[in-house]
Amino acid sequence: MAKINILPKHLAELIAAGEVVERPASVVKELLENSIDSGADSITVEIKNGGISYIRITDNGCGILREDIRNAFVSHATSKISTSDDLESIFTLGFRGEALASVSAVAEVDVMTCAAEDEIGTRYVIEYGEEILLDDAGCPKGTTIIVRDLFRKTPARMKFLKKDVTEANAVAGVVDRIALSHPEISFRFIREGKQVLVTSGNGDLLTCIREIFGKDFSSDLIPAEYSGNGIEVSGYVSRPVASRPNRNMQFFFLNNRLIKTVTGTAALSEGYKNSIMVGKFPSCVLNIKINPSLVDVNVHPAKTEVRFSDEKAVFNAVFYACKNALSRGDTPKKVSRIVTDFYKEPEKPAEQLKIVQPPKPAENFWQHIPVKPVEAAPAVSKIEVKPVEQVTVIKNAEPLRFVVAGSPERETVAEEKTEDILLKSPSVPTKQEIVTEPSEPSKNNFEEEEFHLIGEAFRTYIMCEYKGKMVIIDKHAAHERIIYEKLRRENGERTPQLLLLPVTVTLSKEEYSAILDNLTLLNDAGFDAEDFGNGCVIVRECPMEISADDVQDVICEIAGRFVEKKQDVTFEKLDWIFHSVACRSAIKAGNFTSRLEMEKFAKQLLSMPDIRYCPHGRPVLIEMTKRELEKNFGRI
């Protein structure tokens, strides 16, 4: 049996630091929580190189006494709790006493602090677990902590860090969430010498949301609140029309602590049931207040996972908060009448208006106008009509999109692959294979005489008879696969459409970072997207297959996928973008389809035997022979 060794202090600290400090964002989170617990109402965060080389946290809190400064960097040394009973009533964000010890074990830490009762401040320097300096310092009341060269002496940890911009966006996400949890504190975030966020700290949550995510996101929120069974829920939820394709903009806080809660997520989804489309998710910023004795926050090193003693009560509180919000605040948007001064009638009394008479025409006016003689047009003896000399045949033309106009319920988009287009004009489209003689018949030629359209069931399934079989086609799945195959064939050669009005998309910081890392990939897929700053991207071009109204949802969906599937290689990401675009642009089940559209669409699909499944793996059609049908009716 191997001998059991007691690990050296430095090695034990490195192991403990691995649970608390994963990246610069982890350091910022732990230090911000300490600043909040110190009673600060103004906090500044500054980073350089994504926080890898430099992090500075400054607050105006209570500070640290000189006699306590060394103990603050000892593992499990804390001022938050003193007995086991304190674990059942934790109101502070930190309580384990691991943050400062873990950070100082993997970085250079410089602290300048001054408590309210101290006449002079204290400077304390500790590098990779070793004390360097303890001396007097002139500094204001509060604490400033500077962290330099994170993981410089632990290269095994350094190699797992991402690019500077990715790490910086992760830090920005932490600052956003902590600012949302404490709107009464003014936060300032400086990134690479540029101030990118300032919150007022006036205590108004909606103002804080607007300062972080912008006006577009905050304008679609409605207040939500509920109180019962010792639980209070307050905050904001989104209108159903502003739902998103993922849950990345759902923020739950427990006693002003950011948490991940499956209970809250499920209750939110249940509250919006029958109010939003399937596959869409609401956004929210909700704070749950509960007696600390009824919840266990000592579950995960990052303190983001908690356990409730009564999950049902928490579920009901969030559910009814959402229901109350929707019943009171989900009203249709009204179009206000805009009247400007330019269109107003002049407000003058009638007696002040002067009546101006038009001037009288001069005598013999018409006699002074010179008249030019009109020359007769040359006679045309014969009109020569030239016959059309050549008819050009285009084989395998690109799919055409057409729209059936009318009421919204009759509008639909389908695709038609034209086999032979006769052009009698000398202008010939580019990127087409032009031939002057019929080509050899294909093995997959469609046999017109064996096709008969039956109709449509439930506005979803097209039924037809072909080659002695009854074929039932799922029009959305089939159309989605046809568009998907078209996008794959045109990879890198497609012509995007220029948007009349660029679309600005607000994302979470994780989504924002993922999109910026894959801008080239989006460009290959037909999107012209670029960084718009502060968690937003602006889209100026998009693929021809989708409408401008779908651009925001598609970008959010793609960003969520990038965050969820970080390990996907490039071709997998591009393939998924094609999936998303095809699904958005395909005709939807339940949409009206004319008989002409059904006939042409069914013929197109039946002429493409390789298409039998949609990009998600569902069948696009099913077949039933005459014998199978007669057997079901007992004829044979």
Structure description:
With 636 residues, this protein is α+β, with helices and mostly antiparallel strands. It has three domains: 9-202, Histidine kinase-like ATPase, C-terminal domain (Heat Shock Protein 90); 220-327, Ribosomal Protein S5, domain 2, CATH 3.30.230.10; 445-636, 2-Layer Sandwich (formyl-coa transferase, domain 3). 28% of the residues lie in helices and 24% in strands. It contains 16 helices and 27 strands. Strands 5-4-3-6-2-1-7-8 form an eight-stranded mixed β-sheet, with helices on one face. A five-stranded mixed β-sheet has the order 9-10-13-11-12. A four-stranded antiparallel β-sheet has the order 21-22-23-27. Strand 1 (42-48) and strand 2 form a beta hairpin. Helix 1 crosses helix 3 (99-105). The longest helix has 19 residues, at 311-329. The protein is elongated. The chain starts with 8 loop residues before the first helix and ends with a helix. The model is unreliable at 335-346 and 388-443 (pLDDT under 50).
